[in-house]
Amino acid sequence: xxxxxxxxxxxxxxxxxxxxxxxxxxxxxxxxxxxxxxxxxxxxxxxxxxxxxxxxxxxxxxxxxxxxxxxxxxxxxxxxxxxxxxxxxxxxxxxxxxxxxxxxxxxxxxxxxxxxxxxxxxxxxxxxxxxxxxxxxxxxxxxxxxxxxxxxxxxxxxxxxxxxxxxxxxxxxxxxxxxxxxxxxxxxxxxxxxxxxxxxxxxxxxxxxxxxxxxxxxxxxxxxxxxxxxxxxxxxxxxxxxxxxxxxxxxxxxxxxxxxxxxxxxxxxxxxxxxxxxxxxxxxxxxxxxxxxxxxxxxxxxxxxxxxxxxxxxxxxxxxxxxxxxxxxxxxxxxxxxxxxxxxxxxxxxxxxxx
Amino acid sequence: xxxxxxxxxxxxxxxxxxxxxxxxxxxxxxxxxxxxxxxxxxxxxxxxxxxxxxxxxxxxxxxxxxxxxxxxxxxxxxxxxxxxxxxxxxxxxxxxxxxxxxxxxxxxxxxxxxxxxxxxxxxxxxxxxxxxxxxxxxxxxxxxxxxxxxxxxxxxxxxxxxxxxxxxxxxxxxxxxxxxxxxxxxxxxxxxxxxxxxxxxxxxxxxxxxxxxxxxxxxxxxxxxxxxxxxxxxxxxxxxxxxxxxxxxxxxxxxxxxxxxxxxxxxxxxxxxxxxxxxxxxxxxxxxxxxxxxxxxxxxxxxxxxxxxxxxxxxxxxxxxxxxxxxxxxxxxxxxxxxxxxxxxxxxxxxxxxxxxxxxxxxxxxxxxxxxxxxxxxxxxxxxxxxx
Lengths: 355, 388
Prior knowledge:
Chain A is 32% helix and 21% strand.
């Protein structure tokens, strides 16, 4: 990378809505609350915000230009420096992280939001596939995930029991998370007696359908220290994509995650905790392997996406939970976000306490 | 600002047409990307990151197409970023891509924007499939009526702009509309769509793409030394405002005014009418040229239409606007903002061909989106210090 010194930027606050199967609040109303909560939590108001970047998806909302009405939640008056990505809010955070390094402004708010309850994911998700060769097949996310799970089982990286163990652990972790949608104290043997949804995936291997929104506040070095005793400094952030068609990929590997982790500064899997955007149980097993984690690394203490999966905010929520680890005197944390079939596109964000 | 300089070192666009049935989505974006890479004397291997922009995915029925297009744009193993800020998205794409370079994150970034409107029904998608969509013209006509009422402009101003941009398009080999016999009479005789906008005062619906290569000062100076002049980015800004509330002025949107002062301050522009040589403004319906001349401080309030009436904005006038033919001649919506940026870059590079403005050194590129809410502006110049 070029030698310019990177301006230091930190996560200084965040907020989320309750994660639920269905809310009657509009996306704008969800955002109105989480932006207010994120700012008020650190003594800021909308007037302090100098850059905003929203992440959302018209197809989830079911309306073209759906993000335009979300400007009302930002309180963009006087008009804000602003952008929007048709990606998970984690990529909105990436754009804001870049923007703050230009040096002229100090405070940014980024959001991710989505109400998956208003549509049928099995009908919507095939539309993100290659429109000529894959979309017409109607292959949905769960089917593609099942193919990847089979590849992992064949490669010896997963089996049905280890996958169920991930589900049990995540649901149990979620019992300590008042925002989580799916919680429980089940056991592996009970789960393994259930029928398949798509072999080898059972219901517990899948994420819930969730409505929710997340807002994160970023600050430069000039402001971060005065907003929070222990800001979560972004020491590295990178994202990479790979070939779209899953048939042309080795699904038992995820090279884009390995590159993003390396470019974000992950060395030998050394990190205290990680919040991974692993919406399917086998994905956690793959990421642990690709990122080089040993058993010491605490993964998804929030319950992760298997407990709450607000599409377009799931990745940004990972950054929020990772920042919580730093806020609570942790030293290092990793947040991961993904997009596309079988973990096609991946972002890794490294956070540290005062360094 | 405390960031590294960034320049445009390659520009490419497709031939814009109503239907590009000869190419897939991937083929369309590659046509623009390869032209930009060739212009920069680069290949995909030289590119560190790709930024893709387009307007609503509902236009084509492909959700998050950056996933599918990662292969076509050589992005495997690289960052692939997707921007969507309504109609302004093409210009925002360039600005976000420039941010990758100015902050030192990457050295060579490919910005691509496209729309393949023939795959769907844009009018339908603009209304999100709900019946009787007003369409963009229906949404904008009230703003134009307000402008006319406020400025007292005569009705032929819209016709003049429509003719001027279509005459310019005849000099642009990539332009979609080529109306050889365009005239005031022909515009005036065309059907009324949304009073006061007539059919020939409206943009077409196009399939098309645009791409630019953005790079560091070192890369740009090497290109210059090789006889390939870069276009330096002297200022950028994107701002947004909510759609409707008491006190909002959509004819002179505050987001546009603030964006303008942002980029003028960054570029050291105090007298835009004199210091800017050419402007590529987002004018999908004729009257917007007069409206934007005022909102950008190029004309005094109420006087933008007089610049049109006096022929100042013609290719040979004192302040040429949209020498490429503009959005009125080619409108692949998601790409239209990046086309403004690319055409402005080509003007200051002296690479605009038959529609080149003689001696252009400083250019303004601008795009807007939604109900005059999203603005993205850039100032491009033939040197880092064009006023020195």
